[in-house]
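User: Hello! My lab partner asked me to get a predicted holo structure for this protein. The small molecule is flavin-adenine dinucleotide, SMILES included with the sequence. Please write out the structure tokens.
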Amino acid sequence: MTFTLSRTSSTIAVVGGSLGGLIAANLLCRAGWDVHVYEKAASDLESRGAGLVIQSELLAVLAEAGVLIDETIGVNIKERITLLQDGSKAGALQYPQIYTAWSTLYHKLRQALPAGRYHLNKELTRVEQDQQAVTLSFEDGTEVQASLLLAADGVHSSVRHLLNPTATLEYAGYVAWRGMVEESLLSTRALTELFPYIGFSLPPHEQILGYPVPGADQSVCPGERRYNFVWYRPAPKDTVLRDLLTDSTGKTWPEGIAPPLIRPEIIEQTRLAAHALLPPQFAEIVDQTEHLFFQPVFDLSCDRLVSGHVAIMGDAAFVARPHCAMGTTKAAGDAKAFVTALQNHNDLQQALGAYERSRLRFGRMVTDYARELGAYMQVHSDALDGRVMQGHQPTPEAIMRDIGVPLASWYETI
Ligand SMILES: Cc1cc2nc3c(=O)[nH]c(=O)nc-3n(C[C@H](O)[C@H](O)[C@H](O)COP(=O)(O)OP(=O)(O)OC[C@H]3O[C@@H](n4cnc5c(N)ncnc54)[C@H](O)[C@@H]3O)c2cc1C
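Assistant: Hello! Below are the structure tokens for the protein in complex with flavin-adenine dinucleotide.
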């Protein structure tokens, strides 16, 4: 049974209105498709998120998606440095990159999408499909029919369960503490010795990295920017992680705890650990960060990205550890591959088959490589159900060369 897609009569529903869903919707709109985005959050996500790296492949897709690429897209950084615990420099590497805030990209992608296409407060609760269409049911009792559903509903995707019932998130054995601090709050030492760089420091089996990003209202003006950091720390699943995920009422949140529910004593212990383990410039960043939060680090791979009239993309399909800084770039690549497949094939199954072949391969490469980069932080045997993947502590040179840097060979295989 074939189903022919056509720009004049087919409709596409994108579920999940974060960066992946927004990039896909903008690309699809510009290619002439009738697209609507359904996001479960009740209000704009703009005030959320922290920092991310703009890889050159992401920049190219953003431009195609209608985002104006000018100096407001992010902060240009030329050099990487590694600091030792005493604050001295262990090494440096010239590596120009653009760093931005998640909210900057969200804001620009929302602006690029034509009015009336983005629907908040639409939590998908059920998906049914037949030979002709897919029916989406939402928490508010409404239903929508579409020719195609593209699910960009993130790491806890419910649509993924329909396609890959056995795919599960594997906890990597460590968490990422994160936060952002206003440039205006920093001392002269932190401003001169850390702020202008992507900085790293490597306590045993840990890693902190940071970089400047746009500040309030997406400002990239000196004095108005922020410094974003990610600090990876081992946290055995059944002891430390469980404690971190338990709020002050005693309730444990296995899928991730909302930042306001993290117990004050956990925050206090983290600030103390920063002073004990990190160079003073980084300890100051952690200390000055008002809203410290953490996310457990997960791996996720899928065997199927499509079924009938349904496809998944972005973090719904593959979750790579953040060490390649590829989350948003991979989502953008998925979106681009999806639109290209629809352009090249009128037949639904052929189009989705082409999309799946190219992105399964790419997703596997990125998740495998990110696993390798993070292996040295898996110091507990319960990290992977008894399997220990403990790697060697890397040198500053290796860290500066490999972290947040995509492999050219990934793109050659597409
Ligand atoms: C608020 C927020 C802040 C983030 N901040 C950062 C950051 O600072 N740095 C970084 O590197 N990455 C960040 N990420 C993750 C980053 O966006 C992703 O790794 C990457 O861009 C791929 O995104 P995605 O769109 O596939 O998934 P996600 O970004 O995870 O988005 C999934 C979206 O789907 C929505 N959704 C989930 N279930 C349903 C449902 N049933 N019905 C409707 N909608 C649903 C969610 O509310 C969410 O908006 C953030 C994600 C979110 C949601």
